[in-house]
Each structure stands twice: as structure tokens, then as C-alpha cells.
Amino acid sequence: MSEVQNLLDFPPAPNLGVDGKLNPRKFSAASPEMKGQALFFGKAQCSTCHPAPYYTDNSMHNLQVERFFQPQMINGLMATAQGPIKTFPLRGVKDSPPYLHDGRLHTLEDTVEFFNLILELRLSESEKQSLVAFMQQL
Q1: Residue 10 pLDDT > 90
Q2: So where are the chain's domains?
Q3: Which of 35, 83, 84, 111 is at 20 to 30 A from 61, Cα to Cα?
């Protein structure tokens, strides 16, 4: 699957600069998108595994989701301890639901909440909304 993904180009992201970050001429510093970008590269720790410009590190990470989930069927698959999974590129993420490698997260809002819990980030509702607004620009 990753070999096929490597063949595909990312969809256009007209609001990103050549560095993969938001073009500051298109957003005010107080916009939710710019606040979300600051969170993405700061408090939310997203860029640890999803660095710009492609928003992936092409590495494997173990999120230890079994800490928060009981084994259950999701989309016809048994969700249990997952072990390491490859970091998904976030470029074009708004156009590729469902999320996580097994489709257990249906929206970007679900995804932000998932990582808020897994990483124990303690994000406020407005911070979560700003992160989603930023990811919709990728």
C-alpha cells in the first residue's frame, strides 16, 4: 500500500507556501487556521510525526491505543492492540476520510480528539477547532 501511495501526488493546497506551511499573506495571525498551525507545530505535537512539507516522517509509531479501547469490531475489523503503524501523510487529509489506518475515526474532529486523548494534550474546544481548520488547508 505504501508503494502505491508513493506513486500518487498530493492534491493542490493553494494556501500553503513552498515550505508546506500556511502563506501568512492569506491568513491573519488571529485566524483559526494560523492558530491551528501554531498548535500543530507546538502544543499539540503533531509535527513530531507529521513534519512539513509533506506532513509525514515515513516512520512506524506505536500509539498504544489498547490503553483506551476495548477489543471491538469496527468496519468489519477487530480493533485491538495495533502495534506500530506507519505515519500517514496529512497532505490532502480533508479529502481522505475515514482516518487512522483502519478507518476507526470518521472525521477530522474525531481524529483530533483521538490524539488529544492518546497524547494527553488537554486541548480546549477552540484549540481542537483551530487544529481542524489548519488541517483542512493541507
Answers
A1: no
A2: 2-58+89-135
A3: 35
Inform me whether the pLDDT recorded for 137 exceeds 90.
Answer: yes
CA–CA dist 118, 112 (Å, integer): 10
CA distance 63 to 137: 25
Record: fold of 2-58+89-135: Cytochrome Bc1 Complex; Chain D, domain 2 (1.10.760)
Cα separation, 21 vs 138, whole angstroms? 9
Beta bridge pairs of residue 62: 84
- Helix (H) or strand (E) holding 7, with range, is helix 2-7
Residue the block writes with cell 508513493: 6
Q: Give the Cα separation of 109 and 102 in Å (integer).
A: 16
One DSSP character per residue, 64-118 reads: -GGGT---EEETTEEE----EEEPPP-TTGGGS-SBSTTS-B-SHHHHHHHHHHH
3-class SS string, 11-64? CCCCCECCCCCECCCCCCCCCHHHHHHHHHCCCCCHHHCCCCCCCCCCCEEECC
pLDDT in tens, 46-75: 999 999 999 999 999 988 877 777 777 878
Q: What is the pTM of this model?
A: 0.84
